[in-house]
Write a structure and sequence with these properties.
Mean pLDDT: 86
CATH class of the largest domain: Alpha Beta
Largest sheet: 9 strands, mixed
Helix content: 40-55%
Oligomer: single chain
Strand content: 15-25%
């Protein structure tokens, strides 16, 4: 169709050039030249493939491509004029420069107009006869990303979107129109009257790197009005290709942490990990698996992934198999309990004195309250075995993944992790060994196995109720990638004996978290999903802490990472004897004596809402 238009427009261009004086034109010459210029333009169409554009989705990119194509076709005409022998053979004069230029302008304008005309007819036809349900939407951001988002909505075939307005915080843009769509303020858009008038169902955030405070304000206002809220990913994820509607994801709970995401880019991590042999314990867990993914990016020489959970380790193996072959072949998936010392010795012999990330642990507070012997066996004694093997095989660096529940513990799990911290930290403080023993301590991890997010999501999908233990209970939260990125960063900067803690912003009230998740999933807390309070579980705190009373912090070069400095002193030899006693109690299944011994090691360990609270009472 476009080729025919080019052919039709050449005689028109000649008429314009000669002021419609037919006697100035030679019909046969014009016919030959029309054929030649049509072939030249056809070659340009084939070279630049402008014909591949879907007419009903014509946009700015297509306009640019058509412009370049007609310029190329016209240039071929000027180039052909340089070959005199061709024109001599044809026995006709060369192309007139004025005719070529007029033809180029006419071709560009009319091809573009034709495409947009066909697109308009298609849109009118679809609007009239389509059975698709129209989804009215708002877009937050009228800049480049907002415009690209508008275009992606127009191209969507599965659903039909109707853009009601752009929302923009810039007063100079408000009251204007962008491609016929009004630009308004957030205050005007987010009123019940405006939402009801236009039947708006969705709100899309289309601003690259929007500040977390503004993002949270927008999302909360949208959710309060019952709007489904979505967000365009960072531009680097789609800039090389057209933005797809599938890439515009629903807002998730991580977007509502009340702080900016923690992003670390440490060039020294590459040299610290590249071509090293690295061991990760608990590699199939939420934290261990993400540590493994991030380590793989730095191309270690060998990645030893140890876990006792067969199915979870298999899942990790299948996931990492999608990585390039030269990386995946460095991964070794090993089923082993870290308490199996003989098997772990075999693994350590492959380490060549390099890196250990120890993430294997039991972490569920109520479960460990019921099974203190298992908590001590893995979290304390398992860590001790790992530390001792690291010393024996002269590992360069050992990084323990700990938890804020180790601070002033009120439960078995927290106490077991604090004792593990003490043993790890003591190696550099009291033995002054060559291995650098480092501890990382952070709060709850969103989306990790057993955390409240997947629990709440499952409860909401079933229609509720969502169970919250106490209306005032709060927790610190991080995303899994944030937590693991910080673990690697702290591990690289540590020199031995440090406990690194992370700035996780303000604690989040779990009740508020539940409300936001219900809203994000399009439910209603009024007549729909209810929240019920079940009471604190055994060992559970109302609030978590990152520092004990005897600890202070000192800064590091990174503002999100600090070092906990303790003023406590310990008798190291007595501490070892106490650990030996714990081992005896574990092997003999003496749970009460085991917990009593843990409390002896940790005087600050006071049970909360637990059967072991009796051990805290003064003995007569």
């Amino acid at each position: 169709m476009e080729t025919l238009l080019v052919a039709f427009l050449y005689p028109v261009a000649a008429l314009i050039r000669y002021n419609f004086q037919l006697n100035e034109m030679n019909a046969s010459n014009t016919a030959v030249k029309t054929g030649i210029i049509t072939v030249l333009y056809l070659i340009a169409f084939l070279i630049l493939a402008s014909y591949r554009g879907i007419i009903r989705q014509t946009g700015l990119k297509d306009t640019k491509l058509i412009t370049v194509t007609v310029i190329l076709g016209s240039s071929f005409g000027f180039l052909l004029n340089q070959f005199n022998f061709i024109w001599s053979a044809l026995e006709i004069p060369k192309f007139a420069a004025g005719v070529l230029l007029i033809h180029m302008l006419l071709s560009g304008v009319f091809i573009i107009l034709m495409r947009f005309f066909i697109k308009s007819i298609y849109i009118i036809f679809v609007d009239k006869y389509s059975r698709k349900i129209t989804i009215p939407v708002l877009i937050y951001g009228s800049g480049f990303t907002g415009e690209i988002t508008r275009q992606s909505l127009e191209k969507e075939q599965k659903n039909k979107f109707k853009l009601i307005a752009f929302i923009d915080d810039n007063p100079s843009k408000q009251g204007k129109k962008l491609n016929g769509v009004p630009v308004i303020s957030m205050d005007k858009a987010f009123t019940p009257e405006f939402i009801q008038k236009w039947g708006i169902q969705q709100a899309i955030i289309a601003i690259d790197r929007l500040r977390s405070e503004k993002k949270e304000i927008f999302i909360e206002k949208a959710l309060a009005l019952g709007l489904q809220t979505r967000i365009v990913p960072p531009s680097e994820q789609w800039m090389q290709h057209d933005l797809s509607i599938k890439q515009i994801k629903a807002v998730n709970i991580e977007d509502l942490l009340g702080r900016a995401p923690i992003r670390l880019t440490n060039p020294e991590l590459k040299s610290a990990i590249a071509q090293k042999v690295v061991l990760v314990t608990g590699a199939a867990g939420s934290i261990g698996s993400e540590i493994s993914r991030q380590l793989l990016k730095y191309e270690p020489a060998c990645l030893l992934l140890v876990d006792q959970a067969e199915s979870a380790l298999y899942d990790l193996q299948m996931e990492l198999s999608s990585h390039p072959d030269h990386l995946f072949k460095q991964c070794h998936f090993i089923i082993c309990d870290i308490g199996n010392v003989s098997r772990m010795k075999e693994i350590f012999e492959q380490l060549r004195r390099e890196l250990v990330y120890h993430a294997a642990a039991y972490k569920h507070v109520p479960m460990m309250e019921a099974y203190p012997d298992e908590a001590a066996r893995l979290n304390i004694l398992g860590t001790r075995k790992m530390v001792d093997l690291s010393l024996k095989y002269q590992v360069k660096k050992f990084v323990l993944v700990s938890t804020d529940k180790a601070v002033n513990p009120t439960n078995i799990m927290g106490a077991s992790k604090r004792i593990a911290e003490m043993y790890v930290q003591a190696q550099n403080q009291y033995l002054h060994c060559e291995t650098q023993f480092i501890t990382t301590r952070f709060g709850n991890v969103l989306g990790s196995n057993g955390s409240v997010v997947p629990l709440f999501r499952a409860q909401i999908e079933k229609g509720g109720p969502v169970t919250v233990t106490h209306p005032q209970i709060t927790r610190y939260f991080m995303t899994i990638p944030e937590a693991c990125n910080l673990v690697l960063e702290a591990g690289s900067m540590g020199t031995g004996g440090e406990i690194f803690i992370f700035d996780m912003g303000k604690p989040v009230r779990i009740y508020d978290l539940a409300l936001k998740m219900i809203q994000l999933m399009g439910k209603d807390t009024g007549k729909g999903v209810q929240i019920s309070f079940t009471g604190l579980r055994p060992g559970e705190k109302l609030t978590e802490e990152l520092l004990s009373a005897s600890e202070n912090v000192k800064p590091t070069h990174h503002p999100k990472i600090m070092i906990a400095v303790s003023g406590d002193e310990m008798d190291y030899d007595q501490f070892l004897l106490n650990l030996d006693q714990l081992d005896t109690f574990v092997r003999n299944n003496e749970r009460l004596n085991l917990v009593r011994a843990m409390k002896y090691i940790l005087p600050q360990y006071v049970s909360n809402n637990s059967t072991y609270s009796t051990l805290d009472r003064p003995q007569n």
